[in-house]
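Hi L., both proteins are below.
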Amino acid sequence: MWKIALVDDDFQVLDGLRSIIPWEELDAEFAGDAIDGEEGLKLIEEVNPDIVITDIYMPMMNGIEMIERLRARKFPGRFIILSGYNDFEFARSAIRMGVEDYLTKPVTVEQVRQVLAATIEKLEDSYLSSIEQTKLSRRDNAGEPASEEDWLKSAIVGAGSMDSLQPAPEGWRDSRPIVLVLELTKTERVKGISVADWNLFKFAITNIACEILERDVPKHGFAWLYGNHAAVVLDPDHGLTESERLAECRRIGHTLVEETGRYLDLKLRYSLGEPKSSWHGIRESADEALKRLLTEDESNGAGQEAAPVPVLHQKHRKAIEFMIEYVHENYAEDITLEDLASRLFISKNYLNQLFKKTTGETFTNYVIRVRIEKAKALLSEGKYLIYEVSEMVGYQNVPYFSTLFKKYCGVSPSDLFKNKAK
């Protein structure tokens, strides 16, 4: 069985993760938890888990420092970051250390399941991966040059400085690169899909991207970073001005978005880094593109020209959007703020304050209003009796339903029913 350890200074998050991880489905077991990086370090060295889910901002020692120390000690496990903030500097550090995914709270049960399943699939392939790493290590020790693909990925996301990287392959030595970072947006189209299908989507996106790049840019490179992010290294015609080269890269970004949407019905976003004068600037350009993408509002589509929005605001907006969507889809069920708080890993009181600040009303009132509006529409159809409508919108107590209905609509459901009958 795969051992999973949890590190977070919020007890509610730890309890929530323990309850929502589908242990049996993943053939996994709970390996223990810790409330800060120091405790996490001791726990991980003691139980040697396969996967660690960790927060970043914690007392004593933060998550990034804990991962760095474990990596320095050659800990072979996989890391998944679950953070309350979409912080660029920490996201960049996570990429450098080969973190499997960087999730921003709030997350859904399905997101946690999907990321863990994908990570376990990689662990299952670890034998073949270790064989390949052994080959690469032997080749490096023998002084043989890395392949262009290996070199490019190291230039984008590798640990250490660019100066420690092997010399650039011949085709990149005189390059003036611009890095474009892509994000596969997790829409309804990809929600709940299997790990195998997720990998097929990534494979298909890679094929489309490479076909477009081979057609439009003589010198290019493509590499998946982490989770749903990929990087494209571009080196447009040096005879163009910098503004013209950037315009060409934007055109390619839009083409990637459009073609992926047309052929796969998938939504991509992209952002560009600044042009660099040599291959030594590849990593810096990638960081610039990633930072812009992480601070842009998803509603702005492709995103290159989007205005930055506060990341914390974006996190809160997503939580409220999830709550509203959930109410409209499940108004007939027993909906509680406690349940949603556990799903979103946010305390109940804070979530209610956040909802009221954003919508202007409490969550309880919003649920009642949605139910009453639905009840009003059902009664207007004249097909159902009052007690039937009451049950259809989540109220088993008909007198209570009638009281709420009159309070919100100004008339009782029986009056509305009589008027419709006439």
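That was the first. Here is the second:
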Amino acid sequence: MGFTLADLTRTERRLVDTVLGGRQLDLTGAAERTIRGSVIRALLLDGFPWPGGGVPDPRGIRLRGALIDGGLDLSDVETSLPLHLLDCRTGETVRLTGSRLSTVDLSGLAGTNVVAYEAKVERSVMLARVRLDSDSPEGTVNFGGAAIGSVLDLSGAHLTNTHPDGPAFHGNNLTTGAGLFLSDGFRAEGGGPRGTIRLSGAVLGSQLNLTAAWLVNPAGPALVADYLRTGSNLMLNRGFHAEGHHDTGTLRFVGARIGGRLVCDGGHAFTAEPGQLVLNASEVSVAGDLLLPLSFTPGLIRLDGLTYHGLPRKASLDEWLELLALRTTHYTSQPYFQLAAAHRAAGHERDVRRIHLARERDLLRRGKLGLRGRLWHRLTGLTVGYGYRPAMALLWWLGVLVMSVLLVAGIAGPAGLVVRTGASGTCALVDQIGLALDSAAPLVKTDALQRCRLDTGVPGGQFVVAATWVLQALAWAFVTLFVAGFTGLVRKPA
């Protein structure tokens, strides 16, 4: 729509004068605060009839406390003038779809929704402290596919969407040169089954900050950020709160790449159903430290494929082993190997063995093992600690030796079943013990067999002989398991 100066109201003429002079028009508390959105659009476009042939100041439109009538549609507008509309109100959608703008500052805006799908903003976009309440499938704030040269700031914003499939913030495939701030009292409600906050495929030049944010979605995930990329930290800390209801997780970061730290210290996440997934960090890569205390969520977590730098912080090793064994959705070995690698790099070899033992126990409890595999796993666990405690086999072998001595010297000897070889009479106690050791100590032989033998010609003699064969087989088995477990442990890769 084309305008002449005669078409403008007195308040709108004041706005024209302030744009020419590089000043701000503050209408807070004024009797007449109305500015038509179509006038603002005209001011941003070339061809507006500026008084006296003047040109707008490079500071652009600077307006505070206005009531924007008829909505603000800047779709496909291309301008180098910054746009600052602070603490304004509007009853209709603010549209920036497909626009090419310099700077956008809508801080303090009260209205319905802001749709900036595939917009390109050279510098920053400020939506701090906005109060937006919509019933729109487009989203309360929509920057899907947008490209922002610097920061996108929604700190302290309150976003609500009552549409059954409308997000509070839609940022799928968003690109920013700096960070995205959904922090410091930011609140978002609604969203439906596809999520309240949607950031799948977003690429952020710096951090994603949700410190002290409050996300609620009774019908789906609170945050979906699959394949998110950040140049710095992901902050879910210091009062962060998320409630959701979805089997894929209240918070979902599948395949995300975090360029700094993942910080969950002081944050909390919940799900409506106790058996549902809360944090889905499958295949997530964290370039920095991982700060994930057990207090972050009482629910289930998925960590298969998660990698991080250094030892995980804000949780002890015992707490991490409890989390992996009892708070993950299913057994997978990778989280244990990642934790073990971190402790091995820190020189904690004893802890590495503890982690692998816990992994093997979890495999036995929840892994997909057949009957044979389960029996073999139980056997190796009892005898050599799954190869991580080969000395256990030596203890079993010592037990076999004791049983052999008790059988030969404690039962067969007093019963007269141990006799001299080639002579009459029974053997001395020391010879009886030597005969027992010969039966249960592979590769270690005394000369007791030359002097004594078990009498198989009397009742019970054959039973004792058969029992010594069984003990000898067990002794060989335990010694073999010790050797196999010991050499297997030495050969485990670092």
